[in-house]
User: Fold this.
Amino acid sequence: MKKFKVARVLSLLMAVVISVTAFTIDSSAASAVETHKRTLTVEELTALSTIFNAKEYAAYYPDVEQALGTDEKILFSHFVNFGIWEQRQPSVSFNVDVYASRNADLQKLYGDDIVAYYVHYANNKKTEAWRPLPVPTDALWHNCIVYSVYDFVKGQAGPKAGAVPVMTPNYHPGVVVQ
Assistant:
């Protein structure tokens, strides 16, 4: 009878720990989006429009396509009002987390300013062709560890202490190795 009570208490304790952990992770992700969300300037919107591809965005995010359809203007509006803050990618040729993770000089300049990375890439992709390709397959090919752009701190190279990678050579969700 005593073993049964101990097992029951341990099960209850484990359930509480798991539920608190899951809630904390979800709430911190939501708060990151709300913390960084702001109105974009005309210059930022113009730069973002040069790297946005509606067909690729719709294909990459079928949930958005199902809800909104395939109209370019509506998809771009979704991207700049919601997608960018959720770290959705404007096309298959640009991943903001990869770009931020592979450019320590930009981490120091921009920290967790997600828009700054998109705009920098849009405005400098031709003049700074020496930078690593900002796509997950290239990062994986070069055994890079990728962090969320929200894990960087202005003035510091590398992610903040305790940051958990979103992609490693051994963990790369959504990236197919052929």
Remarks:
- Residues 12-28 have pLDDT under 50 and may be disordered.
- The radius of gyration is 19 Å.
